[in-house]
Every structure is written in structure tokens, then in C-alpha cells.
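protien #1 (seq + structre)
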Amino acid sequence: MEQSIESYIKNLVRDVIGQNLGGLELQCDRQTYVIANWKMNKDLNETAEFFQKINSSHDVSVVICPPTQLLYPTQLFIKQSGKPIGLGGQNVHWADKGAYTGETSGSMLTDVGCEYVIIGHSERRQYSFEDDELVNKKVQQALKSGLTPIICIGETLGQKSAMQTEQVLSKQIIGALKDIDTAHFILAYEPVWAIGTGQSATAELAQETHAYIRSILRQLMGQKAEGISILYGGSANERNAAEYSAMPDIDGVLVGGASLNAHVFDVIINAFAKGEQNS
């Protein structure tokens, strides 16, 4: 079967990355993820209906992150469906337990079947005043609890306009990963100026930014950086998913509003499944 130009480029870049550099064989087999962040949406009936309609692919890892009160029923719906879908939380507290009204600990998340948790989303940074230090404490707690952190980073429109994207991202990455020596996490690049606005970064711009993010990870983690999945998450939808899937450093998407519709979410999943088959 004739390869597409996008697949050829993707394979070529992976081959180059995977070459022996300085005697170190770099690992570039990364897991592809399509993760749904439902935010503060859906009730119990809507959740049940979603799982009646959704299909899933064994070629990518699909994860659903519902609101906290829907975590346990979502776990039951996933089991009933028999589909290979992971469960994630949208937030976690930095402490094991204690007098923290309204918060959720890592052990509480794992107790209801969570394997993943979103940390540092721009909405948490903006509305709950979370900074890099707090994000780091949450990452450490998630890892301690056996969860895979989905660490969100991204620049605002003002920072982008001021040409500060690289400076902002490097600061967020270094802050989030302070004293972290494991590669058991996922990074999600979500440009704040694109979240919920319908304005998404082009696939080429996203790839350029993801390549920069991986360069920072290499500085921090060396060879481990090649195995870390970096997702795109700024207004990712069914119309642009295929373009993102063709990029060598985009290992999936963190999807907001477009994940609420089962059919639309399936289209996004299939776009990345086809990308995996062509790579």
C-alpha cells in the first residue's frame, strides 16, 4: 500500500529520533491517547446514553474524565460496555486526606477505578489560582497514589503575542516536574487562547510547539523523554483531528467540548486510530 506523504514524514522523523545517539538507543514508541475532559457537563442519564452510542479502538488509548460525582457510575458503564476505555479524574488534592472540604484525594480516585487524573488545566490555574508549585504537589500526590498525571501546560494570548510561548512552557514544565524522576505521566499542550474559542493551532504550529516541549523534556529526563506522550488540547475536534494525528510529536488529543457528543468523539478516535495504522 502506498504511504501518504504525512505518514512518510512521520516515519522518517521517528527513524531519525530512534537512531543511536551517543551510544544510547532512544525509545520512541509512544502510546497514543484520545482523552475526553467533560468539565462540568452531563448528568447520569446523558452519561448512560453516551456509553450506549460510543465505539472504541484498540489502536489508541481512550480515556473519559467526567465530573467527580459521575466517576463511579461511569466506571460501571465502562464495565457494562466491555470496551477498553480508561477512567480519569479532572482534579486531585495534594494531601492524602484531611480537613479539605470539597476536595478529592488520589486514593479516592483510585478507589472508584480511576487510572488517570488531569492536573494544571488552565481553568484550574485561572479560576482556582493554581500555580506551578501547587501543580507539582498534585503531580507528586497522583504518582504516589498510582495515578497517571495528565499535566496541562499552555500560554495565554497575551503571552503568545509577546513571543513568550517557549519561556512560559519551559517554566511550567520545569515547575510541574520538580523532583519527579519518573516518566509515568502525560503532557497536554493546551494553548489558553484556543481553549473553548474555536480557534485551534494549526497542525504545523502545534507540531513545532510539541517538538520544543520534547526538547525541554530531553534536558530534564534524557532518554526517558522519547517515551512520554504529548497531547494537543486547544479546541481539538472532528475537523482537525486527522491533521494533528499526522504530526510526529503529537501523540493524541485532550478533547473538551467535542468529547460530549459520542459520534463526534468517535470520529476523533478513528482519526488517531488510522494514524496509528499508517505509521
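ok now protien #2
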Amino acid sequence: MFEMCVYTMGNRSYATNIARILDPGKIYFDSRVFSKENCTQENKKVVLGAESAVIILDDTEDVWEKHKENLILMDEYRYFSSSKRPFSLDNNSISVLKRDEKSDDELMGRDVRQVLKTVRGEVLKGCKIVFSRVKNNKKLWEVAGELGATCCKELDSSVTHVISTDMGTRGSRWAVKHGKFLVHPRWLEAAYSSWKRQPEDNFVVGC
């Protein structure tokens, strides 16, 4: 049902070696290895195939400026334990594109970009977020919207989450006083990369 290939911004020898490690029996990728040497934005061959049927897995969004709707942004792989992020990520299951009751024929005819948008929009559905003195606020606001959350600037009883990096902000103090979730921006980033709402207790401000 799927045909997978490897693409890298590195050279072809690097990509070939990585493919050999990931798929020594050539079961999944076979010889479908592409690098920046033969796939460039200029010749528009970065996405190989119909855009409505291509899913891209990468930990870098900037590379796919023209194909963000096809992208599943992955959390960066960190080999050394000392380089792991300071928060605990609940990612026991990343298979968020669960099989529904539709037949294979119906699924084959759907635009994956719309499927990804729909599934992503369910992750934080029902959450209402206020950002309290957070850098890169605009980008995080967009991410929250893509995940189905509602963002606002006013603190009221309908707000479910306050996102901040500082316990001392007015918004942070309000969240604590009124029993609302007070979380670090990484909570939002983790939800985006894992495609599931993460436990708020794992992203406490000040940790």
C-alpha cells in the first residue's frame, strides 16, 4: 500500500549508508535513495509522486517550505542520553493515523494532506490557551491552532491552559490561583511532534 524512500540534504553516499543501516535487506526502501544531488527545490522533484498521496517524515520543517501540508514533523533523534530533552514525552504509540471503518478503496482515494490536517486538528480540540510572556508566540499560536486548540489573549473562566516559561507572570499566577493547567511551551511542541495530547504534569513550568 505504501512505497517508502530515503531523502537527505546530505550527499548520496551518506544517504545510501543510512539506508543500508535502516534496511539491510532492502525490503522497505530497495534502491529508492535520493539526495540533494538529484532532488532540488528548483527542479521540483523533492516530492516524488502525486502530492495528494505523499507523506514526509522529517525533524526539520524549513526544508519542506512548499510541502508543509504533507509533513509529519518528528521529534529530533538524540543518541546520547545527556542530550535528551528535560521533559518526559509520552510517545508509546505514534500511530495516530488509526484505521477507520472505511474500505481500503475509499482510503486510497483520499488526499493525505486533508487527512493529516483533520487528524492533527483533533489533538488539542477543546483546549483554550493563553500565552503568558512566551518567546516565538506567533509560531506557537499557529501550532496550537493546527492542533485544534483555541488561542486568546484574555484570562477568563473558559481558558483551560496557560503556557509560560516563568512562574512569576500574571498569567502564570492566575492559572495557579484558578486551578488551570500551567505548562511549558514544550508541552505544545511535544503534542505537535507526537500527534497526541501530552500529560500536563510532565511539562511543569520551572522544570
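The chain has a mean pLDDT of 82.
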